[in-house]
Amino acid sequence: MIAVPATLLLMIRAWRRNSLTPAGIAVGGVTALIHALHPWSVFFACLVVFFLAGSSVTKVRHDVKARLTVSASGAPGGEGPRTHQQVLATSGVASVLVLLHLVYLKSRAGDGGIEKSCWAWDEDILVPGIIANYAAVAADTFASELGILSKSRPRLITSRTLREVPPGTNGGVTLFGTLAGLLGSFLVALTSALFLPFCRNTRHGSVGSKELALWVAFMTVWGGLGSLLDSFLGGWLQATVVDVRSGKVVEGPGGRKVLVSTGFNTTPEPKADAAGTLHQTSDKRSDDPDIPNHSTAAASRKLESGVAILDNNAVNFLMALMMSVGAILAANWLWSPQLRTVRG
Known about the structure:
Shape: globular
Order of helices and strands: HHHHEHHEEHHEEEEEHH
Number of helices: 10
Radius of gyration: 23 Å
Oligomer: single chain
Strand order of the largest sheet: 1-5-4-8
Distance between the termini: 27 Å
Largest sheet: 4 strands, mixed
Structural class: alpha+beta
């Protein structure tokens, strides 16, 4: 099986290039093996394309992107190695759907077994949900990692006036970022069209070049819509915190929340020594690793937009879930298979 050594090579690559944390590599390996269990290579191929393409755009002009934002720890910004939470946020929904589809194929397997099964596109609605997951997260990754390099200032998509916001703001969009997102979803859509084992004849006819082009176009646009949905969700449900002194967005490590205030006294009271002389006490340090340990941390930050309900990982997971379910419902509406796939 090619997928097993390919998974090992991807894990080694992630470790050498510091693309994933150790926990991220472990969870990523399990995710890849789940995809490898499926007899069709399309889902594993989409996962690989998303990982390789996403890792590549993350490294594009990384030194420039690092200067556009700041880390919550006080270091320069820029995306670091991705954590296991980020892996689950982008691939968790697809992994569950892949397992469900495997069960579905086994329940319908004939004498030839599941290895010889093909996709009857007008009867099987789980497949669009899986591909939609990767089209959407790829679009979001491309839009985020390349859109921040846009020469034009991003505009807040949740603002009535579409006001300008600092680069890296949750909900901030640019035309360049939107087009970059479409490129990301196109790569996944094209991969799916190349690797999907289409059945030659279905209730609605055979699959030709026209149908393949429509499939690629639909998944490309659907992925782009997922990126915009992520912007809306991030603009509404995720707090964007800005460093007052530099005007740059403060990023939480691993997609975690960034606090505006530290919750401790930033002005320590003076204490008297044995001679009665008053001395300023040293700053009380925060136990939160996401917050710089100095007394001006709270005063140096402000809320730019959004509400601190979800962190970036939760937003990504919610977006992927909504786009996958939406694609399944859209396929059910278009092809009217009466949810045969789900019912088995």
